[in-house]
């Protein structure tokens, strides 16, 4: 009598696991930090569940899967459990999630809701309704349920041909019977499903070439039920009394094995049959999910669907063009460029904040080409750097199908309501929705305003309290007893360390130490910190604070700046992460003590509070161009008195998203002498990212102005010199262009000159895009203009001589004195941020062209220690613009019936 061939699930499972182990090792050679992540969620601690969990953890560990048990208390509620699963769904290091059933809980929890809460992309158990549905319609591209899939693999190993075979499935459970029947059907077997209500089950089974049993009744299927030569797959596992065993029990299946083995041609044992396969297929699903995530991470080309432009002649206003285009849902754009769920926080459906965690996840992608867009010395009307930048990325992304992102500053509301108008580009090269771009966006500037003014309030408050209290009372209020205990806060402990006081017990300080700790002794004449507001308000340029009788005569002259002129905005733009931002905020110098020591935000105890206010503002904002290509909008430091570039974190995220073969194009404010120089010497010095090429935007209008053309005045008609051909003026203005080209070459960058002819979106920038691609293919010889170790004066001369064409720099007596003070205070090694007119290469806005050999006068200095630069004031630069006689305010309105903003550009 021949016995059935044993189909060893243990052996097959071992083979599968070994193959998976090799695959994981192979991927690790490509991505060293790669590891498939599996999380097993268990509610309670049932011992039978623990047995299965230990098996899964052992198998996963041997393969190289990062497996962790998420054990939750029996008291957990359904909402709490759903929240845990939501967090796992959004964790990019997790590729597979299984919820161990049954749930061992005290509260009522719908297990179906729980299994369906697991993301279908991470449902490695294959139990989500979507994955089950795919199997039911023959789509085997999703995750298949592990036990039925294991059954199919064992049938394949038996040698029996499924195609055309009669298959009978006993049981119709969601986990085994129903999906097993569906899988057999899609492998072209003729399938019959039997269940508790089926009549003549034994007769039906006897007609089966393949018999899959998962009925849940011990040894229900007898040998007489089995067709001679049939293949039997026993999915059951039951405990049966057996006095011969030490435990008094043994495991049996749903098939009477002893009877079946003399009839069947092949049969699975219990244990050692389907059970090990279930675990193996779970591991295979997990590894497959991880490989998919890794392939997506390394995917070179975005699956980007551009938006089509409908060009109209004559070209309508910017707002009409912007509203004629329907933007993509921002979640769709985020998905197209490779962002995942927890990295995208939507603000409505047209803008979103992007988490800095994307940088770490995308690090294996490498970095794309980095292009800085700047201009020649502009007219007061601006020469279209933003428009050119947007047109360039539209050409690269929508027309040449390269991964391309624009990184732009967020505009202040001051110009929006004043005279300049918006900063979203123009014509058929715009960021949309342009109303959102120019008004509020996600509130980052308001966060900067709040943080800046909190620091200002604390500064004046500290001066007041130090002026009105004795040392001991001041100290006791700074370190009060709370519930009988007195202790220093973290920020106070940092101040003690800076003072060299190595004590942590507030009651142990000597009187002299109490005075040093409690008194900042701020000299009001040295205060550098101003309050800010994000509107143009000339009457705040000079004010007096502290005039209320409650301030006891401690009034002083003060002033407001526009919010984007705050050092905090520069800090936001230069910070590399939250911790770096926090450290920079703490280092900001707001004044000096009467002894000449710098007083910082950390000394005032406000660093943590500032960080809390700016936590969300550090995340860049995702928007899109008119042609549906991505834009990151972030930070807006004032280009005259700060470095005038968008944020380091936005560029970093963009460089990772585009990948090695993509392009990130970012703007530097004003001409190359100001914006590009600061971009390189300040921003690139801080980030360590160096540009591959520079795009220099020029217009015929600006060149004519530098050739001696009539003044260009906002709001006034252009002189006919600008509207008619005048080659003589154009030729005389060329030296200004040549100086700016030279500026790029001084940093070792290839320079592409873009003559802004107000092109037709991306299609009008194709030649520019191709030129940029070629420029970025050249070897990168980028170099900084000066080293930190040079003196402040040497740095000034290096910038003035190389970027402006000056012969030398001259310091006023006040500037000389301040420079020595800053150098003595330890700020001499910081880079220089030139505060100079943007209207001329010189320090005089009236001088056009490209003069040589002039003297640049520096009136004074101040330090932006948090941002990390020393500002050199070359002439009077207003940090608070004023409104004109007829500001844009007159034209802006809201249609209360339609909700549409009117008159915005």
From TrEMBL:
It is found in: Cytoplasm. Residues 7-125 form the Tetrahydrofolate dehydrogenase/cyclohydrolase catalytic domain. GO terms for cellular component: cytosol. In the N-terminal section; belongs to the tetrahydrofolate dehydrogenase/cyclohydrolase family. In the C-terminal section; belongs to the formate--tetrahydrofolate ligase family. This is C-1-tetrahydrofolate synthase, cytoplasmic. Residues 145-290 form the Tetrahydrofolate dehydrogenase/cyclohydrolase NAD(P)-binding domain. Its EC number is 1.5.1.5, 3.5.4.9, 6.3.4.3. Keywords: ATP-binding, Cytoplasm, Hydrolase, Ligase, Multifunctional enzyme, NADP, Nucleotide-binding, One-carbon metabolism, Oxidoreductase. It comes from Glossina austeni.
